[in-house]
Amino acid sequence: MSGVYVIAEHDRGVTSPATHEAFTAAAALAANLKELVVAVFIGSFDSDFEATCSQYGISEAVILESPLITDYGPEVWGQAVAEMVNCLLYTSPSPRD
Questions:
Q1: What are 53-91's pLDDT values in tens digits?
Q2: What is the C-alpha separation between 39 and 53, in angstroms, rounded?
Q3: Contact 25, 55 (CB under 8 A)
Q4: Nearest residue to 80 via CA among 2, 4, 5, 3
Q5: What is the pTM of this model?
């Protein structure tokens, strides 16, 4: 799935101001590229995130949820993103095919 992916920084579901800025920048970039913005949420999903995405016109999201991810941890978040990218690379149609 192509798009402009934005990892949402949050504290127990409450997105940070930096995430809101990233959503705004991603929307401008995505418009220029004619792509969608895809929000990436890592951790325990909170329905408020859905409302936040809606405010910024984001209709696609990837939720990387696990009971093992309770708080921010750079190693855990990095691993989650790496696994997401691997899934996208090896399950999406590729221009090389």
A1: 999 999 899 989 887 787 788 888 889 899 899 888 877
A2: 7
A3: no
A4: 5
A5: 0.81
